[in-house]
Amino acid sequence: MAGESMRDVMIEARRPPNAHRGVLKWLQRNLFNGPINSVVSVVTIGVLLWVLWPFVQWALIQADWLGDSRQACSGEGACWVFISARFESIIYGFYPEAARWRVDIVFALMAGLLAWLAIPRIPGKRWAAVIAVVGFPIAAYFLLLGGHFGLMHVSTRNWGGLMLTLTVATIGIVGSLPIGIILALGRRSNMPLVRAVSVVFIEFWRGVPLITVLFMASVMLPLFVPTEVEFDKLLRALVGIMLFWSAYMAEVIRGGLQAIPSGQDEAGKALGLGYWHRMGLIVLPQALKLVIPGIVNTFIALFKDTSLVLIIGLFDLLAIIRAGLTDSDWLGFATEGYVFAALVFWVFCFSMSRYSQYIEKRLQTGHTN
Amino acid sequence: MSQATATSHGDTPMIEMTGLNKWYGDFHVLRDIDLTVKRGERIVVCGPSGSGKSTLIRCINHLETHQQGEIVVNGVPMTQDVKRIEQIRRNVGMVFQHFNLFPHLSVLENCCLSQTWVQKKPRAEAEKTAMEYLERVQIADQAYKYPGQLSGGQQQRVAIARALCMRPEVMLFDEPTSALDPEMIKEVLDVMVELAREGMTMLCVTHEMGFAKTVADRVIFMDQGQIIEEAPPETFFNNPRSERTKLFLSQILGH
Q1: Of A281, A289, A368, the CB nearest to B113
Q2: Interacting residues of A181 by C-beta distance below 8 A, sequence separation 6+
Q3: Would A103 be classed as within a structural domain?
């Protein structure tokens, strides 16, 4: 009976064959699974060692860690004493020593809020969001600036170091996202005037270098406003940074909005939902999720570019370290200073990147079982 | 006009279109459409692709704007006013070819969304209504899954339940089975037949001629943006009058 067949017992589902486990198996399968691959692996590892080993020796093995003056430096490796001796000013800038506890409280509050918001297991996200958006900025404002409740006033001219970097980055990130969303929606609006204003705004801010924006904010703005009105230099820089990055953010988000099929909006319309409900409940949640990589990319760029504020005389983390290099007691430690600055920036940016990947996975609803 | 089934709303027709014209740029998609749908009436709209049948029903809840003519839905004349349009949409449920469920929300949340935000119902009440309708389309056991985890037929039944949750007075179906695998078409049609039996006013764009024969009070045949023929299903299928209708029927019932 060729060409005919019939199965009367169905095949039960079986487990897949056991995967090879263990480090050695993994190495064998991935790095040494053939002569050419083995050679490539050995050469790559060799080159890596050859390049990295001197750095490791300099930065870790031969480095000097303890001490409080230049005498502690042996000169064979890195001298991290330079960093530890100046650690306070790297963190606080010129913030008066007597009031630094206020900065510590703000740091602690921020870390606590971030943990509350970022770790899914901790309940009460709604409260955390309210506190983060309303309570925290007010508390941080009064704590950092002072001048009320018996706290000494600390002018923003004395802010600096990591504290200034984080202030600028946080306000830039928190401000540019909502403005970016509004601009992206505006650029896709049916109303010609709203659309035109959004396009002009985005194209203007995107077409100007950030340095120019900062210069204009600090040097040119005072020329146009009456001399009695004096805006804080930091505030001006913050507004400039926020508007500049919101233009980038708008284009990232617009990319996400365009990727959402029009059927989603139509389904919302058919259910009687108004424009803001459709955007806020249906389109934006999907669009923002889609462009998390782009948004975080922008956040990271913003974070790193905060160091540009040094050109208008604000002393952020990098500027404070550079200032330290000119200290006559500590000449010749530029490498240590820049490596440390790079490390601090990298830790923050890498954390943002990892967290965004985690969030992306968590928000995935399409193909989970 | 007067019927035994007339409700408390009296004899006002559910949908009344007069002299409807629509263009896409220079392309004349809808030409002089006059159509009245009575309460409780079930109408099937068919015709070749590009004949304007989807555009026609999408005008009823203003997903498309028309340039000439009038549409009155449930006694409310359509204008450009957003509030007026939203008021009309609350009475008109719609089911799409590609389901258009919200993929970031669970099945239950899909059904609760507009109850919560448009009708301002408390959460518990909205969920109760949602579960009721999910029960009726026999998919209540999937309430906590996401649309991406369901088959096409299941998604379309959820979409029907989602529309029904707003307790609309008329339901529009825009080719509800065209995107489905063959073995899933029946489960969706069964739900639609059930809905028709309960007296829902329905306007269905579909090529399911079996459904038209079982359920429709009237079949409307469209071509090139106009209504060519309008008749009860027996007459429409057995004695079509126009040559275009005959050609269309021979093409879709050919084998």
Answers
A1: A281
A2: A249, A250, A253, A284, A288
A3: no
Residues forming beta bridges with residue B72, ordered by sequence position: B16, B77
Inter-chain touch A366–B100, beta carbons under 8 Å? no
- With beta carbons less than 8 A apart as the criterion, state whether A87 and A162 touch: no
Residues A280 and A208 in one domain: yes
Model confidence over B148-194: pLDDT tens digits?
A: 999 999 999 999 999 999 999 999 999 999 999 999 999 999 999 99
Identify whether residues A253 and A195 lie together within a single domain.
yes
A232 and A86 in one domain?
Answer: yes
Give me the sign of the Cα torsion angle B88, B89, B90, B95.
Answer: positive
Phi, psi dihedral angles at A11 (to 5 degrees): -80, 125
Question: Tell me, what's the ipTM?
Answer: 0.91
Q: For residue A225, how many other CB atoms are within 10 A of its CB?
A: 10
Answer whether residue A51 is part of any domain.
yes
Establish if A286 touches chain B: CB-CB under 8 angstroms.
yes
Chain A residues with CB under 8 Å of B149 CB are 367-369
CB A210 within 8 A of CB A146: no
Q: Which residues of B are less than 8 Å from A369 in CB distance? A: 149
Nearest Cα neighbor of A87 from A162, A10, A17 is: A162
Residues in chain A within 8 Å Cβ distance of B104: 285-286, 289, 363, 365
Query: Taking the model in full, what pTM does it have?
Result: 0.86
Mutation target among B112, B113, B165 for the A interface, most CBs of A within 10 A: B113
A38 in a domain, yes or no? yes
User: Which domain, by its residues, includes A53?
Assistant: 10-61
Task: Note whether B118 contacts A282, CB cutoff 8 Å.
Answer: no
Q: Do A271 and B86 touch (CB under 8 A)?
A: no
Within a domain: residue A76? no
Of B104, B118, B149, the CB nearest to A271: B118
Crossing angle for the helix pair B182-197 and B152-164, to the nearest 10 degrees: 20
Tell me how many domains chain A contains.
Answer: 2
Whether residues A348 and A295 share a domain: the answer is: yes
pLDDT per residue as tens digits for the range A184-206: 999 999 999 999 999 999 999 99
Q: Does A281 touch chain B (CB under 8 A)?
A: yes
Q: How distant is the Cα of B194 from the closest Cα of chain A, in angstroms?
A: 22
How does pLDDT run across A248-269, given as a tens digit for each residue? 999 999 999 999 999 999 999 9
The CATH number linked to A184 is 1.10.3720.10
